[in-house]
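Mods, move this if it's the wrong board.
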Amino acid sequence: MQMRDPYKALGVEASASDAEIKKAYRSLAKKYHPDRTGGDKAKEARFKDISAAYNILSDPSKRAQFDNVASGGNIPMGDLSEIFAQMFGGGGGARRRQGGSPFGGMGGGSPFGSAGASPFGGMGGGSPFGGMGGGRPQPRPKPAPKPAPKDRKVKAKDGSELTLRGTRISSDLRIPFDEAMLGVVANVPTLKGVAKVRIPPGTSSGQKLRLKGKGGRASNGSYGDHFVTVQIDVPKVEGEQGSELLAKLVEFLGDKRST
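Not the wrong board. Structure tokens:
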């Protein structure tokens, strides 16, 4: 494999810092790694060129030797593989003719040591993104969703039963039909005692009222809310007189809705 000037191979200046060299190498290695190029031979060769160049420039001793030789001005910069072999591999010509790497090791091997090893460590042919060779980068597993809080029964200050879910308290409030029609201030048992709640006139059964900060306590010390569902007790109408009064009430209410 013919080697170019390692600085040109990585696209950096001869004055580049170690960090700049490492950054350029990683960027190119990810782009040209065989796991990402689908068997493209030209790109595979480019990857080997990049890896060999980094092997020189990442080693202070090898980089210094190259810079000293290159500063003499007598090096054919288009093809440095023979010189690299003599400088870093020993017995360059014979090793190259036998198909060996100019950096030592078995023929066709990685410039980083073991035959076929990935420049990123791990097993031969491995991906630069972790895992064994041939695999695509594996997505990180999503954290398991937190289980939804379950309802549990708790007791109010007066012994009434409330339902707690997380920091949310819920309970029912039963009021007579006339209080729902006319409105009333009702007593609602909570975890903190009895709360006064105004029931507006014309409140419907099933309507929810919110008592802010009257719920359960969170881990950060704040409190949730208490939601009260109004349940209206409808009286049983008996007798002719009661039926007549109810009919008049229904007629009256109907007239009010139509106006």
